User: Fold these one by one.
Assistant:
Number 1:
Amino acid sequence: PAPSAVAPVQTSNNAVPLINNNPGNIMYGPYAQKMGATGARPNGTAIFPDQQSGENAQDNLLSSSGYANYSIKDIPQRWAPAGHGNNNPVAYGNSLQKFTGFDDATMAKSYNELTPEEQKTYRQAMQRVEHGTASSGVTPSPAIAQFQNEVIARNPGSLGNFGPQGNGVDG
């Protein structure tokens, strides 16, 4: 079958990044530890002590030399590589463009070439691809949707967008 035009959803894992304070689904390892990760879930994703630590880890990792030679369209080739679970980096990149609304010229830039506002938009799009939401065209299971609503109610302004699941690779 032809690859999906957008990243696939694994509804059983959609809430895990929220529990982990890990909006980018960064894998546990030396980088995550350096950024304050306190442990790992059974699936290998890092657990951060708070949401801000997880968001900082995502931003710093995207700004690092490990991603410097990737366009923002191609970052999923490293962030969520094929063969790691059900990842589809092409679909992930297509989803990022859809969710950001960026044109092809902007998608050809590296993360560090984006303005701070564009970087924030890009990270939020990644979070949507990592989590699953009705606003992203993906409908999580009723139990996951209830959990997400509870998390949003407890943390207004945090991860109000959830999107299909992927995996941030520790760089």
Number 2:
Amino acid sequence: SIAGAFTLSGEAPSGTYTIETKIAGESYTSAVVVAAYRKPEFSVTVTPTRKRFYRDEPIEFRVKAEYYFGAPAAGANLKYYAYSRTDWSAEFSDEWEYDEDEGGPPLGWSGGSYGTLDAEGESRLDEKGEAIVRIPPGESVNDEESPSVQIVDLSATVTDSSGREVDGSGE
């Protein structure tokens, strides 16, 4: 891999550009998409409806989209993905500590993995700019052999009536 930087003219149009690199007499090309930055006009928050859920019950998240001027993003489309992963630090909290010898993160850290995809779907926000997403318990969570503490992450993309997309997530 290589790294570098260059500055486009402020007048350069948005679109797909091709970068050609020559290394040891061989040419390599790569496509780069240049787009104008546009500040989002609304925010998306994702919060669980409760702090804890039991193993055999659905997990609920509230997704809320609100314009920065205060109005709800009523009727906006919602696309979501729910992932679950084991909270190993809850399973072995006394045994897990920072691994200084390896120079790495704390032992038991999940590694930032999304985990297992449990559910995905689409919905529409109500007149308050909200939707409740219910995630059924995953098969692995209901397995008696599986660890009892799971973390569920919900990743949401909201698209308003003008086609603008904003992402949000919560666990």
Number 3:
Amino acid sequence: LLAEGLVTPTTVAVRNGSAFVPEGQLGRAGVLGGLFTVREISLQGAGILSTVILPGNDFFPEGIALDPVSNDLFVGSIFQGEIVSILDGATRSLPFALEGSVLQRGAVGTRVDANLGLLWVCDTNFGKNIAGGAVVGLDIDDGTQIVRHELPDGSFCNDIIIEADGDLLVAE
């Protein structure tokens, strides 16, 4: 896939027989537009099927999560603390949680809890100079904050796993 132009992939979500991979092309810094994308890659070997361009030149995607109910994807920005959604079948992203609306730092790990209707997000300090980190639960329908668990200063919430009983495991 690197030969086909996939550059610095970050994470992956699988939907309808395709892998969706956010990528940040920091090597293209200074070039306007198209720096940050989500690539749809065939799991049957047909290569890159489509590209969704993420907003702005400083979005830098980190986490991606699939809502198994709606088939929508959610992509977080490690630098901006924004989250965008990519609706099932869409070719562009839509704002879901804007910078400063619910996340104070940066969106790193993301995970959908379909049972609770929540998008869990690691709100982690990555250049915002706000100590610590938090695990934030956002309403999957409108992005409003439902729950927030602040972590101790010095924490770096990196990723989230949801166990079968609904408990969250947070990787630092």
Number 4:
Amino acid sequence: TPGVALAGILGASVSGVTISGHAPGVQISAGASLTLSSVVIDGNNAAGITVVGSGSSVDLADSVVRGSIAASPAKGDGIDLGPGTVAIVEGSAIVANTEEGIYATGVGTKLAVSSSIVTDTAMNSSGNFGIGIDVVTEATAQIVTSFIARNHEAGLVSAAEADLQIEQSVI
């Protein structure tokens, strides 16, 4: 079960806590919006943060998402964004997750990463992936003043008509 689950609620916030050992750590759905600040999301199954359902969003600031592990057949992404969702990641560390540090997919999905690091993403149990940021299937992403390195397969992947903008960052 999720450590924090939010469905259809706008404007909620969580700060100054550690969320550990859940599946996933945080789940946002049904158009909900959540601000996470100064949180540690550590060692969760399937994903650190999952955002699903068009209109759902997360704003992650000054936080750490680390050590998410794959729970078969799910991935162990740090942040997993479904179609039509939004994530703003500022001043945060997305480190040592499994398969993808941040995964953004689908029409209308928007990801903004600034002043953050995405590092040390590991491959899955099949020996695949290990991607820092994966933007696919018409999702859009803007990466600014961030450090994306030491990921097993690639720092950034953009495919299937995705739109990726990178400024003043190290890949």
